[in-house]
Amino acid sequence: MALVASWFGRRGPRRETPRLRARGARRAVTRVEFTDLHPDPESYLGRAARIQLGHVETLGSLVSDFDRFDDKERLSTAAGLALSKHQGLVAEIVRRDEDPAESMSAVAEPIDHFRRVTRGATPLETLLSFHVTSGLLDDLFIGLSASLPPDLGPRVGNLLGSDAGTAGVVDILEREISVDRRMGSFLAMWGRRLVGDTLLLAREVVDVTGSSGGESVEPVFTELIAAHTRRMDALGLTA
Amino acid sequence: MALVASWFGRRGPRRETPRLRARGARRAVTRVEFTDLHPDPESYLGRAARIQLGHVETLGSLVSDFDRFDDKERLSTAAGLALSKHQGLVAEIVRRDEDPAESMSAVAEPIDHFRRVTRGATPLETLLSFHVTSGLLDDLFIGLSASLPPDLGPRVGNLLGSDAGTAGVVDILEREISVDRRMGSFLAMWGRRLVGDTLLLAREVVDVTGSSGGESVEPVFTELIAAHTRRMDALGLTA
To answer: Which residues lie closer than 8 Å to B185 by C-beta, 6 or more apart?
Structure first.
């Protein structure tokens, strides 16, 4: 946690009544809001932009790993949607007269590390990694957007909450898991590992060091995990 | 040439007066038209769609190979533009009540082979390969579109002639070549190898077997190579 300077104020988070919002064509996940945290906009935007660019990289490299034409199209569509989000976040950084490359470089180390440890040994593992980690991190950043300044937060929340191509990704995962049930239990185990790594990054993002001992963010993390569990359930995987 | 059945009528091609058209933000290339060839629309569309999807794969995998954020954005933007073209071609196949996966599978073998032999040993070689091969093949398919039925050809020609993100790709190539001049002579050699492989695919596409001995298509290929030479010149590379 010492890697990156604190970028949130140290007020305790407060969990709001979860709201349902559409995500992809098929699922509804809980929206978590932490209205008492005050993320620094530049750090928030730099991280969010770097993470979306990471999704572009992951999905872009997966396009050639899957043989079916429709899979290639699903994956590149999802990559294009992540690129749109990245570009929208970069535009917000520019609008604040800050340099996108600097904002992203400042936060690159923990995110690059995260990307390395969550890369799968097979394309299917990497695709599940995208689904699990982007689901958790999108929920986190959408939740945090409610605490950004009012001239920024709603726009960013809408941007991050827009279609991520999840339905197509879920189609591929469901089909592959149905082919080989043993694969399902293996992927379930991989999914648990991914949650651990993602929550480490999420905790670093929320930066509990020096706040009320971490206890106060527990409800927030409980909500993130509950939404994750519903995503895994939808795939027939044990979270 | 025996791999794939003939899909063009056997009339001789005729070279039209070259026209200039904008391509990317910086360059103008010659538009070649072969108005006396009559490509079979399904084969044409299947090939063109598969080739554009190949561009998505190549560019998508390159995104994580380049470290700079702006390069990642340039490459994923170009991938997104190739995806749009692919999707537009798939829509044309569907409009003809044909199955896109079948149309693309029927032509997959020579295109997959072509993609394997034109993949570079380094990201920079692969990027030059995208630039060189997509330039030649786009010119070929745009030229052939003039011979498609009038309810199809102009739409496809416009689609293939739209922005391909070339300016961003050229920016990366120019920068990398300027860093190391010896790299330039190596890439020039690689470029000559790429032209050979691309013209083999182009000849297969035009399918000279059984026509007037191939002689009649020479002016067409001369035009394709002239446009290629201008692209290489723009990079300071000897074609």
So the answer is: B238
Let me know: does A223 contact A140? Beta carbons within 8 Å: no
Residue numbers of chain B with a pLDDT score lower than 70: 1-37, 207-217
Q: Is residue A51 part of a domain?
A: yes
Query: What is the tens place of the pLDDT at every residue in A151-174?
Result: 999 999 999 999 999 999 999 999
- Residue among A61, A69, A104 whose CB faces B69 most closely: A104
Helix or strand run (H / E) with residue B209:
none
User: Which member of B50, B61, B68 has the closest CB to residue A60?
Assistant: B61
Model's pTM, two decimal places?
0.80
Is residue A106, in this structure, part of any structural domain at all? yes
We report the CATH number of the domain holding residue B186 as 1.20.1260.10
**CB contact (8 A) between residue B104 and residue A69:** yes
Closest Cα partner for B135 from B30, B14, B12? B30
Residue B9 included in any domain: no
Show which residues on chain A lie within 8 Å of chain B, measured between beta carbons: 53, 56-64, 68-70, 72-73, 75-77, 79-80, 83, 86-87, 90, 100-101, 104-105
Nearest CB to B60 within list A69, A79, A101: A79
Question: Is the complex ipTM more than 0.95?
Answer: no
Instruction: Please list every residue in chain A whose beta carbon sits closer than 8 Å to the beta carbon of residue B100.
Output: 69
The string of pLDDT tens digits covering residues B172-230 is 999 999 988 888 889 999 999 999 999 989 988 886 332 334 456 677 788 899 999 99
**Domain-embedded: residue B115:** yes
Cα(B121)–Cα(B129) distance, integer angstroms: 11
